Every structure is written in C-alpha cells, then in structure tokens.
Amino acid sequence: MHFELDDKYLEVRAQARAFADAIEDIAAEADEMSEVHPGVLGALRDSGLSGLMVPAEYGGRFERVDPLAICLAREAIMATSAHADSLFALQGIGSFAITLAGSEEQRRR
Fold it and tell me: 15 with 61: CB under 8 angstroms?
C-alpha cells in the first residue's frame, strides 16, 4: 500500500500551513472571540483555500471536491487556531450542498 501524499496534497498542506503561520500572531485573540475576527477572515480570503470547497467547473481548485485535501488543510489550520478552522470549515457547508443539489444558477454564483 502507498501511504505517501501526492504532490498536490503536499502543496495543499503547505498552503494551509502558510495561512496558519500568517495568522499565528492573532490566533489566540481570535480564538477568544465570539464573533468573526476580521484579520483571520481576511487572511483566509487571501489564502485561496476556499477553492478547495467547490469543483473547478465553478471556480474551485480541483476537478472535484477532494475530502483528503480538505482534511489536510483543516489539520494544518486547527494546529494554530480553532477559530480559523471553523471559518474554513463553514465555507464548505453551503457550497458543497449547492454543488451536490443546487440549481445550475446557484452553482454558477
């Protein structure tokens, strides 16, 4: 059995670690907040990681939503901030449901 990660997964993990490193100075503050931390949200937006949550046809990174890529990203993010991980995970709740069962108009938005 082959247990090593392919290059695309190593790249996802590195990208998520770079995001986590970028928010490290504000992570503790963000984790104490009950509202969305604007710095974490902005850094997440700039990271491009939300592209993991939708297929390439609708602007995503890979042909299909890849659960392993998402898990690797979450693992790297949650090591630094529960707040950041929650924000990242929430990106997929609505978008994945729309990808699976939404109308074509909803998917295009």
Answer: no
Tally of domains within the chain: 1
Q: What is the pTM of this model?
A: 0.89
Residue 59, token pair as written in the block: 């602007």
**Is 82 among the domain residues?**
yes
Q: Which two tokens stand for residue 43?
A: 């850094």
CB 74 within 8 A of CB 91: no
Residue 28 phi/psi, 5-degree rounding, is -65, -45
Is 2 within a domain? no
Residue 77 confidence class, pLDDT cut points 50, 70, 90: very high
d(CA 57, CA 107): 9
- Structure-block tokens of residue 99: 């990808």
C-alpha–C-alpha distance, residues 12 and 51, integer Å: 11
Q: Is 1 contained in some domain?
A: no
Report CA-CA distances (Å) from 13 to 1, 27, 32, 69, 73: 21, 18, 25, 8, 6
